[in-house]
Amino acid sequence: MSKPSNDRREADNEAKSVLRTLRVSPRKLDLVAATIRGKKASSAVNELTFSKKRIARDVKKALNSAIANAENNHNLDVDRLIVAEASVGKAIVMKRFHTRGRGRAAGIRKPFSHLTIVVRERAEAEEN
Does residue 44 lie within any of the structural domains? Predict the structure, then answer.
């Protein structure tokens, strides 16, 4: 016998995608995530496609995954989706060192981040 399934944390008109341990600092990732918050899903994908930031490719993958989850798993209309939430969190920080002159060493921090994207289907009344 298996465990009972947990209730869904999102609303019925929402779908979520989580991207974990991205090799970028949370501060840089939040700059890209801030550009798509509150926008229509289609315009957010366009903006990420033409962004010059390296991490925009991974954010676009997560956004496309959230859109696909909304369409396939929750039967939501893709044309009415907006990016309701794009949150960034800290993950691990790898600590390395770089050898310097005269026997010294300098510390290097390699931060990782988590990204959560929630898309929501707007009601017909909100579209106007």
Answer: yes
Which residue from 43, 50, 45, 79 is spatially nearest to 62, judged by alpha carbons?
45
Whether 5 is in a domain gets the answer no
CA-nearest of 91, 77, 86 to 122 is 77
Give the pLDDT confidence of 10-29 residue by residue, as tens digits. Answer: 889 999 999 999 999 999 99
pTM for the predicted model, two decimal places: 0.91
- Which residue segment(s) compose the domain that 26 sits in? 14-123
Buried b (16+ CB within 10 A) or exposed e, 77-91: eeebbbbbbbebeee
- Residues paired with 8 in a beta bridge: none
Residues in the chain: 128
